[in-house]
Amino acid sequence: MSDAQTLPFADPATEPWYHDGRMLAMLSAAAFSLKAIFVKLAYAAYPVDAVTLLLLRMSIALPAFVWLATAGSPAAKRQPLTRRQWGGLIALGLLGYYLSSLFDFIGLMTISAGLERLILFTYPTVVLLLEASWRKRPVPRGVWLGMALTYLGLVAAFGHDLRHQGELAAVLVGAGWVFLSSLTYSGYYLGTAALIGRVGSARLAGIAGGAAALFVIAHFALTHPFTALAALPAAVWGWSAAMAIVSTVLPIWLAARAVERLGAGHTAAIGALGPALTIVFGWIILGEAFSLMQLAGMALVIGGVWWVGRSKAG
Predict the structure, then answer these.
(1) Residue 81 φ then ψ, to 5°
(2) Please, which residues have CB within 8 angstroms of residue 59's CB and are 6 or more apart in sequence?
(3) Between 20 and 30 A from 193 (CA), which of 132, 187, 230, 250?
(4) What percentage of the chain exceeds 90 in pLDDT?
(5) Cα–Cα distances in Å, from 166 out to 46, 176, 259, 300?
(6) Which among 139, 117, 130 has a CA at the least distance from the CA of 247?
(7) b/e for 244-281, b at 16 or more Cβ within 10 A?
């Protein structure tokens, strides 16, 4: 599929908004960006821990993952899986949906939604370094420049959080957890390249997500009594449902439809709006502080990631 491919019947001048690839990509980015907001709102509603919150999110999303793995996948991608493919999909679920989400939820307990999103957005630079190390290839100079800009932006965003969020130790620990989330998600991203062509994107997301839900349920069962769920207020259940539906299932579906119309490259480019949207949502919904330092950090991170992608493509 070319980067500019559209559906044969699509007429940009007359098609409804829900057939517009750009609109679908923007809605997907916005839905993903709201995840951190919903997590912070749940933490504010009740003293719930990260494992419990993740259990609610993944349990509510589980039926959608099952659908993606079965009826939501094209018939051509429903061939029997080999043991190696099953093992790879389970490993992807462990990295991308379980560990990455768990580390992210823990980090959000002590840092702002804006800083969290900026740290996660650095994963393309991590992927590039992992690829270069694995294949023993030198990293181009332009890529190093882009990464320098990206991490300089993180320093600025970190300074903003330190000024407005609290103590140095708390911000450092929270940022460290989210960076671990970025590392594990980078491993997930690299792993998808080996499987997505044979398994299909919907089936991969469904099986990996379903496996992760089972990991989360097992984690909760080993560390919490299930009776504790009955004590949770309706607000926590509501924000968890929003995480599962609005910021997990919906953006996966929207992104898939956007890729069909725009191609992966253009869809990913529009997804770069994510950090800016999270910062705006945090300011409007959560009342998080906004500063020129944070704005500068956001610009440097987005610009650095864009420069890395441009240098790699060149």
Answers:
(1) -90, 145
(2) 213, 216, 217, 244
(3) 250
(4) 36
(5) 20, 15, 40, 23
(6) 117
(7) bebbbbbbbbbbbbbbebbbeebbbebbbbbbbbbbeb
Q: What pLDDT is attached to residue 73? A: 63
Q: What angle do CA 92, 32, 244 make, to 5 degrees?
A: 70
For residue 174, which amino acid is it? G
Which amino acid makes up residue 23?
Answer: M
pLDDT at residue 13 above 60? no
Report pLDDT digits (tens) over 146-158.
Answer: 888 888 888 888 7
User: Quick check: 215 pLDDT over 90?
Assistant: yes
What string of DSSP letters covers the chain? --TT---TT--TTTS-GGG-HHHHHHHHHHHHHHHHHHHHHHHHHS---HHHHHHHHHHHHHHHHHHHHTTTS-GGG-SPPPHHHHHHHHHHIIIIIIIHHHHHHHHTTTS-HHHHHHHHTTHHHHHHHHHHHHHT-PPPHHHHHHHHHHHHHHHHHHHHHHHHT--HHHHHHHHHHHHHHHHHHHHHHHHHHHHHHHH-HHHHHHHHHHHHHHHHHHHHHHHS-GGGGGGS-HHHHHHHHHHHIIIIIHHHHHHHHHHHHH-HHHHHHHHTTHHHHHHHHIIIII-----HHHHHHHHHHHHHHHHHHHHHH-
